[in-house]
């Protein structure tokens, strides 16, 4: 009798404790709303460079509550049949469109006229945390995984991101791209306990710890084989359901309230279908806070804490944007407008731009480093697109970059792509019957006219030298 009474009393205590715990977690959930609390307005104003601020205890409470209320109690790609998917045109990569769909992605695609399309390998996907907090519209992300071990790590990390960060869970749809010779036949089992153990306050450190588990042969394969960035860009673009696409790389972070301001501009402007809106991109010193607005960015630039993207690495990458003119266009209004037209287009120009997805696709013959983005922008120019620079919108890449020695494998990839370009430029001429940069002239004639493809030893449009043919086309963009 005494034993039964003890059990009954313990049961009552357990029920009371569980009830109080649930009430507490519910209150915390209602007040927090997300596992990472950036300072500032409407979950968008990042007042820290990279990582959110959150105590592990608060994050744990949130994870427990959210896992009961959402579909985050199972790993991403659960139920994905790797025998299916689709092939690229040369059957080099298998593609799984919408392998993960953001919970609000269809709704946001209907309410916003612009979608952010981006691509990444496993190493850089942590940048999506800050990107998704600054971009309130739909995000279409293509991600590459090489081999079963990398795919498993990707499952863990994406599951962790969706669990910890509401903007990623709601706004981001993921598309998966796998190499043909390293596509596994089945997915490794991932349990909830495998990804709920990570600290939500440390997305970058969590990823770095996971990358240590990658097998040496996978790392070697990644170095030896080119990264299919143009495949990924095309997949991400086609994943967008809005009328316009803002195509970036995953470590390019939009300014605060970017999507809302851009959406208002596009609806008000109703631009011509052959218009591409360029967004100025700056490098930012990692010691400073993310600029709140254009005025704040210019202040940092005047102090040498911000500068145009790749300004020291290869100036022609963004030179035609005319940053000095953009910085001189200062207005008290935060309304998005066209600052000026790009008037000195050059072959090596690689702006991040907003346009309908009717622009020419990225040519998938260009793999790895060299000729990946600039060839697509070049075809747009030949096709008659006008590039217009927007203000006060901007994007940021963390870190002031300087020239580094390039490994031999990068130059090998660049040399392969240089040969493809000789065919590509003739195809572009056949398609449009125009050669505005005189790319088909003999190399000596190109040099006289200040033109030339990278590696040709010629100048570039605008009269500047081409230093050794090593340019923006060579980076992992």
Structurally, how many domains make up the residues?
2
What share of residues are in beta strands? Answer: 5-15%
As a percent range, the share of helical residues equals 25-40%
Say how many strands there are: 14
Task: Describe this entry's structure for a reader.
It is a single-pass type II membrane protein. GO terms for molecular function: glucuronosyltransferase activity; metal ion binding. With 477 residues, this protein is an alpha/beta fold. The protein folds into 2 domains: 72-251, no CATH class; 255-442, no CATH class. It is 39% helix and 15% strand. The chain contains 16 helices and 14 strands. It has helices at 2-32, 56-69, 105-111, 128-134, 147-164, 166-171, 192-195, 203-211, 216-224, 229-239, 258-269, 294-302, 323-328, 374-383, 408-432, 443-448; strands spanning 86-87, 93-100, 114-121, 139-144, 172-179, 244-247, 253-254, 275-279, 281-284, 306-308, 337-341, 352-356, 386-391, 395-398. The strands form 2 sheets. Strands 1-2-5-4-3-6-12-8-13-11 form a 10-stranded mixed β-sheet. It has a 4-stranded mixed β-sheet with strand order 7-14-9-10. α4 links the parallel β3 (114-121) and β4. The radius of gyration is 24 Å and the shape is globular. Residues 1-11, 21-33, 35-49, 51-69 and 453-477 have low confidence and may be disordered.
Quick synopsis:
39% of the residues lie in helices and 15% in strands. It has 477 residues and is of the alpha/beta class.
